[in-house]
Amino acid sequence: MEIAGPKILSVEQMRAERDRLVAEGKELVFTNGCFDLLHRGHVEYLTFARNQGDALVVALNTDASVRANKGPERPINSEQDRAWVLGSLRAVDYVIFFSEKEPKDVIAQILPQVLVKGKDWAHYVSGREVVEAHGGRVVLAEMVQGRSTTSTIAKFVKAYEADTRA
Questions:
Q1: In which band, very low, low, confident or very high, does the pLDDT at 155 lie, cut at 50, 70 and 90?
Q2: What SS3 class is residue 52?
Q3: Rounded to an integer, what is the distance from CA 84 to the centroid of its chain?
């Protein structure tokens, strides 16, 4: 059963969906990220983001964008797999892709009313000025301590190395 497929949209389709939501008096929430190995921290973050408005769009870094940001060994999962997993979550209404290092351009195209980022990005929220210039708001989410993709990968590597030595 294909749960996520209908949630994965092009930027153009998302703009039309945003216009429909606005016409209905609803608020679109935007967040972005790599979401490479989905973990509890991601799910809590996305649930928080969804609760900030009426619908949540997650802008997902393409594989090339992840490599530019995280290095040549990432992502672990392909953009299509990451989008499908995100789209399968109840908290996520839409998934779009962006290939730039940061999502400022896609934010300017979609013009969400709410922009959510983790507090670890408080020093710089890409697209803040665009959202606030259109009367929107930026919300910073608490992060779940000890939960990150990088720490998860480190645990995998350590476990793998221990298994190969045994």
A1: low
A2: coil
A3: 12
Q: What are the beta bridge partners of residue 60?
A: 33, 97
Q: Among residues 130, 141, 65, which one has the least CA distance to residue 104? A: 130
23-60 burial, b at 16+ Cβ within 10 Å, e below that, comes to eeeeebbbbbbbbbbbbebbbbbbebbbebbebbbbbb
Q: What is the CA radius of gyration of the chain?
A: 16
CA atoms within 13 A on the CB side of 28: 24
Per-residue pLDDT tens digits for 113-128: 999 998 887 889 999 9
CA atoms within 13 A on the CB side of 17: 22
The token pair that represents 118 in the structure block: 């983790």
Cis peptide bond prior to 103, omega within 30° of 0: no
Strand partners, 128: none
What's the mean per-residue pLDDT of the chain?
89
C-alpha 102/C-alpha 23 separation (Å) is: 28
Nearest to 57 by CA among 20, 39, 41, 166: 20
Q: Pick 147 or 107 by higher pLDDT.
A: 107
